[in-house]
Amino acid sequence: MSNQFYDSRIDDDLALLSETLEEVLRSSGDPADQKYIELKARAEQALHEVKNRVSSASDTYYYRAKKAVYRADDYVHENPWHGIGVGASVGLVLGLLLARR
Fold first, then answer.
1. Does the entry feature the keyword Transmembrane helix, yes or no (predicted)?
2. How many whole angstroms separate alpha carbon 71 and alpha carbon 60?
C-alpha cells in the first residue's frame, strides 16, 4: 500500500474523530442524557480506532525503513567497491558545494 493511501486514511480517521468529538461537545452534556452517553461512547471508540491505525501505520513505516537499511547494508557488503565509489562521489560533490561558500 502506498504512503498516500495511509495518509488519506489517517486524514479520514482524524476527520471522523473530530466530527464525533464536536458533536459530543455540542450536546447538552447532561450525564443522564442517553444521547450524550451514546455520543461519548462513539467518541471513545473513534479515538481508540484512530490510535490503533496511527500506531499500525507508524509500525509499517518503521518496518519499511528498517528493511531499506538492511538492503543497503547488504548491497554495500556484496559490492564494497560500488559503496566506496558512491561514498567518494557524494563526498566530492559535498566538498565542491561547501568550497563554493
1. yes
2. 16
Secondary element (H or E) of residue 74: helix 34-78
Whole-prediction pTM? 0.43
- 27 closest CA partner among 38, 17, 18: 38
Q: Per-residue pLDDT tens for 8-25?
A: 677 777 777 777 777 766
Largest CA distance in the chain: 73
Residue type, 4: Q
**Residues 75 and 42: beta-carbon distance below 8 Å:** no
Q: Residue written as cell 461519548?
A: 40
Tens digit of each residue's pLDDT (9 = 90 or more) over 36-52: 778 778 877 877 787 77
In this structure, the dihedral spanned by the alpha carbons of residues 7, 12, 13 and 15, taken in order and rounded to 10 degrees, is 120
Quote the CA–CA distance of 56 and 5 in Å, as a whole number: 13
Cell, residue 36: 450524550
